[in-house]
Amino acid sequence: MKNLLILFLIAFSPLIAVAQHEHHQTEKDTTVKSKSPRTSAMAMIGDNHIHIDYGSPSVRGRVIWNGLVAYGQVWATGAHKATWIEFSEDVTINNQLIAKGKYGFFTIPNEGEWILILSKDWDMHLADDYNSENDLIRIKVKPKKNDDLIESLQYQVVKTNENQGKIEISWEFVSVSFDFKNAEK
Question: What pTM was estimated for this model as a whole?
Fold first, then answer.
């Protein structure tokens, strides 16, 4: 009987191993990845560390502008939680001093002009609790049409010189940006 059990284990152990391996593979494959993963963009501009945290949705064949993202309405400029931007040093944007800190970043897209907003509120779901009374600055910009499709929403912090940069947002065939410079100490 003992010999029979040993023969059985020897004969079927490769099959058992394959079944266990396939079971583990199936478990790994069932993990659903977010269609709008949380990601970040960051850079050093002089001594200033700029960090942007956002949910990055994809086009996936959808109508984005005045479709998924309505014209004329406040947008969290990302997916899920509101996008935030953190400056480790004071900056100047449109000749206005913005103290170092973390800010919500919202936009109001339109076909010919966007309004970019830095708000004291940064921790919320989308723009659900957005309140214009907490805006620090509003910047009007013209959207730029891109030749190539940007499938997933992306932010970039671009260094333009030692103490200046721009934050650029691109998605689908549209980009908008704003300039900033490190405040003098």
Answer: 0.81
